[in-house]
TrEMBL record:
Keywords: Methyltransferase, S-adenosyl-L-methionine, Transferase. GO terms for biological process: methylation. Coiled coil: none annotated. The lineage of its organism: Eukaryota, Sar, Alveolata, Dinophyceae, Gonyaulacales. This is Methyltransferase domain-containing protein. Pfam families: Methyltransf_25 (PF13649). Residues 490-585 form the Methyltransferase domain. GO terms for molecular function: histone methyltransferase activity; protein-arginine N-methyltransferase activity.
Length: 744
């Protein structure tokens, strides 16, 4: 961890104890091996993050437990080698699959300390899931209500730290809490949070598991649990309910401790056939892009209530596809292998093409409380905040006629780790395995989705399309003013071919290039379907093109920007494209500007709990893509333009640093810097395209850099100096040193 927030918090706790009591019985920091690094951790926190059920003896009062001496053989956080499954996940890498991303990402935190190549992406991925989870409506409140119904003498055992706030609230309410966690890093964070909120190890104990919580052997190795009744709590709810090993984790624990109570006790999975496909976008038929949705081996998660530019509707009323009774585990078929439900009949409400099966969950938590992810399309009063629905595309569309009987069959396999759906349109119920049910969303080859879901968001982002279209129109006008009757235009990274086809309709001679073969084929089909005269080159990178082969162009369009502007290789793409541009030619966009703004922001503020140790560990001093509109924050000053990049005049190497001084307009704790960019176009009638928060764009987020603690308190009128820099991969910012006398 080096100087990470969690380690600092734990070390500070050890120093406070040492000041009160020196000598062998004190809290002198022990040296413990954590992965490949050695850090000093406060002794009482080491004892709190244990590898056994052993409870500390003596008084149960908070003050007494803090004064208790540590046994010299107290297990540390790095006593054993990583379990084989974790080693295997490390070899597979972060992108080993769409399922279980949250659980696997937390385990990867232990494998990549400061300085390793994956340190930054692993922590950003973990932080993203924490941020998203804390904003999912209802989880901590609903779980706290269910836990309150458990007998007061029960020990509450959390299988995984979850969102952290539920275990904190449960301990604060006077319940005895144990948190089992497989990630060493998260275990330390959980203990640091408990310490920060004044919770002793008697109130909230963190136990580091010996292996995955989805394996019965992990619980068997823990030995005898605390005496008395137990209640197992698992917050591993995913958009498709199976994706984070909820079923496997509860099943494994119940296999070792069959008489325990569980929360949640049951889960209902609802499903319906849907039609999800493109409408005409900017007057063009992009239906060939729909083909790239099919054949995926995993569910994709989408918000069915937010699909602008697409036809998205349920073709039949939702049905209860399966009910998972966790109280019956581990004897049910779901945990022991696979379960194939009987086909359920639905009657089609609309005519159309069923392209996918959408599913969502409902979790009854007692006393009228119910946690669910049903969309408004399915009759929900409101769209659940933060939740998405699981969509599994069918291998081939199923034609549906109003009133026609449909048969939906659900299957759970991988020991409860995955679900699939099959759909048939036949008068009589087909037998399981019949050809009529062969159109399974997971049974058709197991291919990975050819493109990512954000491509669909880009294509359907109307504000993005209109801004780029205005830039193309202005650039073509400039080319005609220079004497090009039919300007030649190159569209780099054409994707769906949308901009290329619109430029052709404006009278340009258009050549398009796309390096992803599946996208290139879809663009070529869309060009023929819409009757647009666009030459689509064979799949290749634009940097492989030469003027001798394709000629030169009056206008070159390249929308190759990620949230950090340059992360998709924009600099080498534009640098090479200069060799394909005629003298006086125009790039679309022509320039970019980077803006920075000081903020008071705590992205992991959750339900009244201070989660700053979590933010310090995962996010501090990392440039994090976040959607500011979803986070509580306020600006401490006006945004300032800090950097300017001209794509036609790129230096080599392309890097720059600038310092700006921003006057604070309000008081607050300067805890973050927000950054975004603005694309600018040559010509008239093309307003800039800004990725600042509050705009209509959906395709980009903002970049946020959390500042290390302690945060500087500012008042209106203070001068805030910020240093902003960029290289060929992106931009970053941090406070610049300013003499104290110049701060006002």
């Amino acid at each position: 961890f080096g100087s990470s927030g969690a380690a600092r918090c734990l070390a500070m706790a050890g120093r406070r104890g040492a000041a009160r009591s020196s000598g062998p019985a004190g809290f002198a920091a022990e040296r413990r091996c954590v992965g490949r690094q050695t850090v000093g951790l406060g002794g009482r926190c080491i004892a709190a993050v244990r590898r056994s059920w052993a409870w500390r003896r003596g008084s149960t009062s908070r003050s007494a437990s803090r004064r208790a001496a540590l046994p010299t053989d107290a297990p540390g956080v790095g006593d054993t080698a990583l379990p084989p499954l974790l080693q295997q996940n490390h070899q597979l890498g972060l992108e080993g699959g769409r399922q279980n991303r949250w659980v696997d990402t937390l385990l990867h935190l232990d494998l990549h300390p400061v300085g390793s190549p994956l340190y930054r992406p692993v922590r950003l991925a973990a932080a993203r899931y924490f941020v998203a989870g804390l904003r999912r409506s209802g989880i901590p409140e609903a779980y706290r209500g269910a836990i309150a119904s458990v007998g007061p003498s029960s020990t509450i055992i959390f299988l995984g730290a979850g969102l952290l706030v539920t275990s904190l609230a449960t301990a604060r309410a006077g319940r005895r809490v144990v948190v089992l966690e497989a990630s060493r890093t998260v275990a330390l964070i959980a203990r640091a949070l408990a310490e920060a909120h004044g919770l002793s190890t008697q109130e909230l104990q963190v136990v580091l598991a010996h292996g995955p919580l989805s394996e019965p052997s992990t619980y068997a190795r823990l030995g005898a649990p605390p005496p008395g009744p137990l209640a197992l709590v698992c917050e591993r709810l995913a958009d498709d309910i199976f994706g984070e090993r909820l079923v496997q984790t509860l099943g494994a624990a119940k296999k070792v401790w069959p008489s325990t109570d569980v929360i949640p006790r049951e889960v209902e999975v609802w499903a319906a056939p849907i039609e999800l496909r493109f409408e005409r976008i900017e007057g063009l038929d992009l239906s060939p892009l729909d083909r790239l949705r099919a054949g995926g081996d995993e569910a994709v998660h989408v918000r069915l209530d937010r699909q602008p530019g697409q036809i998205c509707r349920l073709l039949a009323a939702p049905v209860l596809a399966m009910r998972l009774d966790f109280a019956q585990m581990p004897t049910n078929a779901v945990f022991n292998g696979c379960a194939l439900a009987s086909p359920v009949r639905l009657d089609a409400l609309h005519c159309g093409q069923a392209t996918a099966v959408a599913s969502w969950f409902s979790v009854p938590l007692g006393a009228g409380r119910c946690l669910g992810s049903a969309p408004r399309l399915a009759g929900a009063v409101t769209s659940p905040e933060g939740w998405r629905q699981a969509v599994q595309y069918l291998d081939e569309p199923v034609p549906v006629v109003h009133g026609q009987p449909l048969w939906l069959q659900a299957r759970v396999d991988r020991g409860g780790g995955a679900a699939s759906f099959s759909l048939a349109a036949t008068p009589e119920m087909p037998a399981p395995g019949e050809a009529a049910l062969a159109r399974s969303s997971r049974g058709g080859g197991g291919k990975a989705l050819p493109i990512q879901s954000y491509h669909f968001m880009m294509v359907t982002d109307g504000a993005r399309n209109r801004a780029l279209l205005a830039g193309v129109r202005a650039a073509l006008a400039l080319a005609r003013a220079r004497g090009a009757d039919r300007p030649r235009l190159l569209d780099i990274g054409t994707g769906s071919g949308l901009l290329a086809m619109l430029a052709a309709r404006m009278g340009a001679e258009v050549v398009a290039v796309e390096m992803v073969p599946g996208l290139r084929e879809a663009a070529l089909e869309a060009v023929h379907l819409n009757g647009c005269g666009v030459e689509v080159l064979p799949a290749q990178a634009s940097t492989q093109l030469s003027a001798a082969d394709v000629g030169t162009f009056d206008v070159i369009v390249a929308e190759v920007f990620d949230t950090g502007l340059l992360g998709e290789g924009a600099v080498p793409i534009f640098r090479h494209a200069c060799s394909l541009l005629v003298p006086g030619g125009v790039f679309v966009p022509a320039r970019a500007a980077v803006f920075v703004q000081p903020l008071e922001l705590e992205p992991l503020a959750g339900l009244g709990w201070d989660l700053s140790p979590l933010g310090d560990e995962l996010l501090a001093e990392l440039d994090t893509p976040l959607r500011l509109s979803t986070l509580p924050h306020h600006a401490l000053g006006e945004a300032s333009e800090a950097l300017h990049i001209d794509f036609a005049r790129l230096a080599e190497p392309c890097c720059a640093t600038a310092e700006v001084c921003i006057t604070a307009t309000t008081s607050g704790a300067w805890s973050a810097l927000a950054m975004w960019f603005e694309l600018r176009f040559d010509g008239e009638g093309a307003p800039p395209l800004s990725t600042a928060t509050g705009g209509a764009l959906r395709a980009w987020k903002q970049v946020v850099r959390l500042l290390p603690r302690p945060h500087r308190r500012v008042v209106a009128g203070d001068k805030l100096a910020v240093r902003v820099a960029h290289d060929e991969r992106g931009f970053t910012a941090r406070p610049a040193e300013m003499p104290a006398g110049q701060r006002r």
